[in-house]
Amino acid sequence: MKKLNKPFPKDFLWGASTSAYQVEGAWNVDGKGLSIQDVKPIKDASLADIKVAVDHYHKFKADIKMMHEMGLKSYRFSIAWTRIIPDGDGEVNSAGIKFYNDLINELIKYQIEPIVTMYHFDLSDALEQKGGWSNRETITAFEKYAQVLFENYGDRVKYWLTINEQNIMIMLGEIIGVKLPDGGNKLKSIYQLNHHMMVAQAKVMVLCHKMLANAKIGPAPNISAIYSDSNKPEDATAALNMRIMRNWFYLDVAVKGVYNPIALAYLEKQDALFEIQVDDLEVLKQAQPDFIAFNYYASATVKFPESDLDFSQLTDQQRVRSVAGMYQQVSNDSLNKTEFGWEIDPIGFKNTLKEIYERYNLPLLVTENGIGGYDSLDKNHQINDDYRIKYYQEHIFQIKEAINDGVQVFGYNPWSAIDLVSTHEGIKKRYGFIYVNRSDKEILDLKRYRKKSSYWYQEVIKSNGEKLG
Ligand code: BGP
User: Fold this and answer.
1) Which residues form the active site (predicted)?
2) How far is ligand 1, taken at its centre, from the CA of residue 383, in Å?
3) For the chain, does the N or the C end have fewer beta carbons within 10 angstroms?
């Protein structure tokens, strides 16, 4: 068979990612309202909180300059809804508008393409007090917020992402600080809330196309290739179930505007069928994303669940990927793990790209991928993160494989541009290309240092992905 050697596309968006609450700090300045992340109780006092994070709010110019030095072509960041509309659905805060105007202008100055996530785990606490996503009024609030963003930034921002990892919020909400309904028919309430987010996302995609002729918008779930633990047909069933419940359930609605019938049947058996109002299905159908953005960290391996499965005994990563009666995650002995126990599977990355593209045929944008580890400054102020270089070498190689297998991918924005506070494991779990001098307990001087991986990535970008070296 002839081996194709297609290069990365000419304008490939080599970038990096962050999210507002994990990087900005300045949680209560310039009129910002509280988000659910600002008020969440920090369970472990030894973990960095987000009040300062890495103070990107005050240091974004210097940070963007470093990104420029690295040669980044894009920067994927999120806008904090509570800076723009402090109580979620009331007055617009001009200082918040100004902050992101400045940030976007700074990116444009260096020809870095802004890729904006509209909502990344940080719902307004005021909206949460009124029921959050369980309340249909939050749909209207999200639409209003989107309109403000499109009006103010639509002249410069071409790529929009609606909601970051809606599927992870639904499956693992409490771990990342997103409140999910408790008590009563919990499952039904959670999927009701999910439906409201789906409708909100659809409305915003429609609005984007109406207001901005040249903008492109898409969903940004976390998608994983799923393997069966064995060749037992039962385990293959579990893998199929997980693909549906974890991946396709979310993308089918976002892309095709329909609910996956197998997921619905499962929910019906659990007495968890949520309510859909008359117009909702029409709204879902109208929305047409221009691309699919997705985050990938690892594949998952599953077996058919034991009937006495005790969920409280599972690790975080297993819980996100286990659903009673459908599938149970097991660890995959063929894969190495990160220092924080996450499996590493570059080939799974290629498989994920292929599966999504084959199913939906839309251009793909990678909005997160990366490895969390313990980095430290050596006495020469250098950070030797060879393990991160190896991770990226292997993953970028697999993007190229996917391209040569026929997949259309137009950007790679690994997590993260700069060290930031992890969703639940503090800043000691570092992901950045740029090191920030702080610890979980002490803010220190917050000085920035480029890690070895950032110099390596610079060469990758310069060679448009040819030199992984
Ligand atoms: C994704 C989130 C990010 C980020 C990343 C790493 O799920 O979109 O916000 O934090 O995962 O996860 P963690 O911080 O838990 O290590």
Assistant:
1) 368
2) 22
3) N
Atom of ligand 1 minimally distant from the CA of 423: 14
The protein residue whose alpha carbon is closest to atom 15 in ligand 1 is 423
Phi, psi torsion values for 42, nearest 5 degrees: -85, 110
Which is more confident, 156 or 44?
156
Q: Which atom of ligand 1 is nearest to the CA of 421?
A: 14
pLDDT over 80 (residue 312): no
Nearest to 451 by CA among 341, 370, 365: 370
**Amino acid identity at 392:** Y
Average the pLDDT over 385-401 and give the result: 98
Domain range for residue 366?
13-462
Atom of ligand 1 nearest to the CA of 424: 15
Owner of token pair 């990104």: 67
**pLDDT at residue number 319:** 55
Cβ partners under 8 Å of residue 243, min gap 6: 226
Does residue 429 have its Cβ closer than 6 Å to ligand 1? yes
Sign of the CA dihedral 59, 60, 63, 68? negative
Q: Which pLDDT value is given to residue 160? A: 99
In a domain, 3, yes or no: no
Evaluate: CB of 35 within 6 angstroms of ligand 1.
no
368 an active-site residue? yes
Pocket test for ligand 1, best of 176, 425, 440 (most atoms within 8 A of CB): 176
Sequence-distant (≥ 6) Cβ neighbours of residue 173 within 8 angstroms: 179, 180, 190
Question: How do residues 10-69 score in pLDDT, each as one tens digit?
Answer: 999 999 999 999 999 999 999 999 999 999 887 777 888 899 999 999 999 999 999 999
Q: How confident is the model at residue 173 (pLDDT cuts 50, 70, 90)?
A: confident
Residue 136 lies in a domain: yes
pLDDT reading at 317 higher than 60: no
What is the distance in A from the centroid of ligand 1 to the CA of 3? 36
Q: What is the pLDDT, as a whole number, of residue 432? A: 98
Domains: count for the chain: 1
How large is the average pLDDT for residues 440-449?
Answer: 96
Q: Is residue 4 part of a domain?
A: no
* Ligand 1 within 6 A of CB of 55: no
Tell me what pLDDT residue 311 has.
56
Global pTM value: 0.96
Give the active site residue among 113, 306, 368, 401: 368
CA of 423 to the centre of ligand 1 (A): 5
Q: Which of ligand 1's atoms lies nearest the C-alpha of 222?
A: 7
Q: What is the mean pLDDT of the chain?
A: 94
Rounded Cα gap, residues 199 and 204, in angstroms: 9
Distance from Cα 422 to the centre of ligand 1, integer Å:
6
In-domain check, residue 423: yes
